[in-house]
Specification:
The chain has a single domain, classed as Glutaredoxin (3-Layer(aba) Sandwich). The protein contains nine helices and five strands. α3 crosses α9, α4 packs antiparallel against α5 and α4 runs parallel beside α6.
């Protein structure tokens, strides 16, 4: 699971969301460290130690972190019902090999099993930590989303061998074309626009604010998970969160209302 090589924002402290968040941030930061510690390697073929999810559905869960789910039905960078009982927030970088592994191997199965039946919502957070090309890809993803092609851009950018070609602006434009973005002139304008920069900065601030130090990092209804863990880790966390949502009076698992975003 890669960690930032050179970024000014990586020094930000996780103090954005109050004392409770700082405690949880320490846990996520420690998990991030543990996931990259062996040999100090950032090789894309490893995922780090497997995260264990307790049988206790509340253990390791931080309600203040769960509140970071936006549940915005108009969110272009989300998949699933806005009122789904479980929200998985992913903080990721398109230059991150571990993120690509999750996108190719695990995420499609989670969508098929949990998003399509209304249990899970996935909310993407751009968390570019590897410099200019990461920023280009993040803004490109946002710009593609403005034309309802975020997930197609996401798939193209995380395809096998895609990151090795880099994310210069011409390459990002080519990925948008591959993703089926119709108005490429608008895409190029949005790519360098203030709205894209502000959206990416907001996501990035949130990631650093919860103590994420590497990618990918996840929150599942307030439970921090670091690294491209095996599918079973996510399945356990999702099912535990869904069960907890059923038993929590006045929870945010609404059974009626807007259906929000559809799956990919």
């Amino acid at each position: 699971m890669p960690t930032p090589k050179n970024t000014k924002t990586s020094s930000r402290k996780p103090l954005l969301y109050g004392a409770v968040i700082v405690v949880a941030a320490g846990l996520l930061g420690f998990a991030s460290y543990k996931a990259t510690a062996p040999g100090g390697s950032s090789a894309d073929t490893a995922t780090g130690p497997v995260a264990e999810v307790s049988a206790d559905s509340q253990q390791g869960v931080h309600p203040e972190l769960a509140k970071l789910a936006r549940r915005d039905a108009d969110d272009k960078l989300a998949a699933g019902r806005a009122d789904a009982p479980v929200v998985l927030i992913e903080y990721a970088d398109f230059k991150c090999g571990y993120c690509g592994k999750f996108a190719r191997d695990t995420e499609p199965e989670l969508i098929k099993e949990y998003v399509e039946d209304g249990t899970l919502r996935i909310e993407w957070r751009n968390f570019p930590i590897f410099g200019e090309e990461s920023e280009n890809a993040a803004r490109g993803a946002w710009a593609a989303g403005q034309q309802d092609r975020f997930w197609e851009f996401h798939a193209a950018a995380y395809a096998e061998g895609a990151k090795e070609k880099g994310f210069g602006k011409d390459r990002v434009k080519a990925l948008a074309e591959e993703a089926g973005v119709k108005d490429l002139a608008r895409f190029v304008k949005d790519l360098d626009g203030e709205a894209a920069r502000a959206a990416v900065a907001r996501d990035q601030e949130q990631g650093y604010g919860i103590g994420a130090t590497s990618t990918p990092s996840f929150l599942i209804n307030g439970r921090p998970i670091a690294g491209a863990q095996p599918k079973e880790t996510f399945t356990q966390a999702i099912e535990a969160a869904a069960e907890q949502a059923k038993t929590t009076a006045g929870g945010s698992s609404g059974t009626a209302g807007t259906t929000g975003d559809s799956a990919k």
